[in-house]
């Protein structure tokens, strides 16, 4: 599926009552290699590129297992930090918490995110975040980024008991939004398997944010396919 240009997006303009954003790599960057290096340094470990590759070789399959409902958040937390826990002598939950608080300070808004949030808020569109990220990180990160004034709703899968793409998480979001028509909600995210597939299952329109130009999986059909967050201005904001 090709990315749409601004003219094509403008022709698809639609009124939405809510914009529902993924957090990591959609609104915020996520420099986990820096956070992990800082965490390891606290315990006298010189974190190398090889350490990071090894960590991700364990971490990424665990996240997929969590998203597919094969493990819970506690198992994810424990298993991904098993090696570093053995090296530091610290329990995995503590290491995970320390990393999340570190990441809350490291994460920055991606290009165009602040402007889109401000413009949508100014146009009377309500804004939510729906994330599979750990709860301990979310509020501190919003405060650090200074965009909390634009956010009307924060849905965290860890607290709801269902990860994206589980339809129940999106239904919980709709309930907390006071049950808008799902087609008046636009789900925006970078992960086609969790953000786009999950939003579509709940009846929402979807916008796949794909800055790297990856091929779209055959089983996913986003309403919009964009390379830059700025492109959504043409879709969601009323014409001047």
UniProtKB/TrEMBL annotation:
The record's annotation in InterPro entries points to:
HAD-like_sf (IPR036412), HAD-SF_hydro_IA (IPR006439), HAD-SF_hydro_IA_YjjG/PynA (IPR011951), HAD_sf (IPR023214), PGP-like_dom2 (IPR023198), Pyrimidine_5'-ntase_YjjG (IPR052550)
Keyword Hydrolase on this protein? yes
Query: Which EC numbers does the record give?
Result: 3.1.3.5
Which keywords, in A-to-Z order, does the entry hold? Hydrolase
Protein name per UniProt: HAD hydrolase, TIGR02254 family
**Superkingdom field:** Bacteria
Under SUPFAM superfamilies, the record lists:
HAD-like
Q: Which enzyme class?
A: hydrolase
Name the species this protein comes from.
Kingella denitrificans ATCC 33394
Q: Which PANTHER family match?
A: PTHR47478, PYRIMIDINE 5'-NUCLEOTIDASE YJJG (PTHR47478:SF1)
The encoding gene = yjjG
Molecular function per GO: 5'-nucleotidase activity
